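User: I'm curious whether this sequence folds into something compact or stays loose and floppy. Could you predict its structure so I can see for myself?
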Amino acid sequence: MSSLTDRLAAASRDRSTTPVAQPEMKNGFTARGPAGSGPSEDRLTELKGQVHSKLLEQLGPKLYDAELTQSELEQMVRAALQDAMAGEETPLTIADRSRITEEIADDILGYGPIEPFLRDPDLSEVMVNGPNDIWVERSGRLAKVVGKFNDEAHLRRTIDKIVSRIGRRVDESSPMVDARLPDGSRVNAVIPPLAVDGSLLTIRKFSADPYTVQDLIAFGSMSERTAQFLEACVKGKLNIVVSGSTGAGKTTTLNVLSSFIPSDERIVTIEDAAELQLHQDHVLRLESRPANIEGKGAVDIRDLVKNSLRMRPDRIVVGEVRDSSALDMLQAMNTGHDGSICTVHSNGPRDTLARIETMVLMAGMDLPMRAIREQVASAVDVIVHQARLRDGSRRITHVTEVERMEGDVITLQDVFLFDHSRGFDEAGKSLGSLRSTGLRPKFLEKLAHNNVRMDPMIFAMEY
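Assistant: Here's the prediction. I'll summarize afterward.
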């Protein structure tokens, strides 16, 4: 709570205004009118500083009260803001009064200039490229917005506010950090000296109401048949790898696949920053931890995967496998922990297998390549590959069965494949769709052993 007071005092010293967003950003701010239509920008900046000072005087030690909940603190701050603004004798328009109130509240209770964009449900990503350059992603397309921080120090305070809430730090000795917001949105920050032109902050927003399988069908990310197929694969305890590039929607798909897990099973989730939103009753969430300032105490994904095997899991869900933890994940899949799900960065189903092989070698084990491939072929049943197309849409492009070893090669079979042949319409939107290849997977018998049966028409060719 003391850091909140520090931010109030710092904001008061800054005595500068946060940005007015473009009207179409729907952030509640109003654009400035013509010259002479109200107080000058400098006068508004001065007023904002005065209101900050009054707020500090009025709230004082109350900001240190640890018994206050976030909602109570918000009500108290907003009430104090209203009182401070009511005492101002300078004539202000309703728009200017609302603007100053919102900007101060955003700095105290939220994340300053980017708070309006975080509130906008139409935005999926917020990118800060230094204090004077803010970009957002809307419908898969990037756009620069009118907004900036006061200076580098203001941006650094915002980053510190985010990472300190989950017990992480960012400084010159540790200039990169992964974190998350209270709603699960993923945060990455890089500060100088690594970031040459000012601190970089990237926030991938997650919906307060997680996407369901019906949402993905409506978006065109998958077809109705594919959804039925993947639901059967999850309930039938097949091991699934969700692959794709950065920003392709892997975590969203992983979340939807996890929703198919029966509610009577014990699920252990393992992530760098906890962002999965599972609604089953029996979910245990584990989160990795970076080293402390002395370089000790780090707990990585591999350690958590090892430990999860002692927690009697029915399912292990790993947010992302990116290093030697791939070996432990394969071991888990091959030692009775069927139904595990994880994500991997790759360019396609075949590349996914090559990436897993490479990550297993990172474990430092002197294993022959054939032995690694046999482990992969035995462990992984299905690869769900996702891509972000040139129109900004995120689509599942491959649902591929991992069959068996033939010689030194793992054979793959596409069950569903995205049809790119229809091209794009005049607006640049993809006309393709995910279609069945007509091939029946070999693991249907394994599903039958788990009392899961599929309608044969799921695999019928589509024309």
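Summary: The chain has three domains: 1-109, 111-207, 213-459. The first helix runs from residue 2 to 14.
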